[in-house]
Amino acid sequence: VAVHTIMPRATKKQADEMDAEMDTEAEDPEIEAMQRRLKEMEDEAAKLKDEHEKVDDAMASEEGKNAEEEAAKKQEADARSVFVGQVDYASTPEDLANAFSGCGTVNRVTILQDKFDNPKGFAYVEFLEPDAVSNAILLDGTEIRGRKIKVSAKRTNVPGMKAGGRGGRGGRGRGRGGRMPMMMMMMPYSPYGR
């Protein structure tokens, strides 16, 4: 059996006295110590946040410098490279290195492949000397493994630029390579009979 005790409501004066008693209890040394510790922790958190922001800023500026250095290295390597098109699918990097060795010292040959590791039919040849590029371009139209190759200086891709200069479909006109859409094609016969 539960016993409920009914207490009279405190008057405004009594409520104020109770609040005053609580305030005097708040001045307890333990509570003051906890409040000081809380203030110290908040200050320490603010300092850590400032240090974290400084480190982030330093890392961002370092990444920017590294990105610029990498872009400069890539552009310099592209200036020493040529694009080779119409490469026979059976050609190896050694075949291309031998073909271009008369132009200058070949640093690297890259034959691009699709996702099934089949050659795409073009390659890049990187030289140690930039002047070897002009000599390599003279090999445009020569045959390697029975195919006439196309040789041109490698261009550096600029992020955000698309082929054709206008973006989208590369300036080919209407969809599907400039042809009429399927629904607009003229039918040589009537779909409804005669």
Automatic annotation (TrEMBL):
Residues 33-74 have a biased composition (Basic and acidic residues). SMART domains: RRM. CDD domains: RRM_II_PABPs. GO terms for molecular function: poly(A) binding. Residues 80-156 form the RRM domain. Keywords: RNA-binding. PANTHER family: EUKARYOTIC TRANSLATION INITIATION FACTOR 4B/4H, POLYADENYLATE-BINDING PROTEIN 1. This is RRM domain-containing protein. The lineage of its organism: Eukaryota, Viridiplantae, Chlorophyta, Mamiellophyceae, Mamiellales.
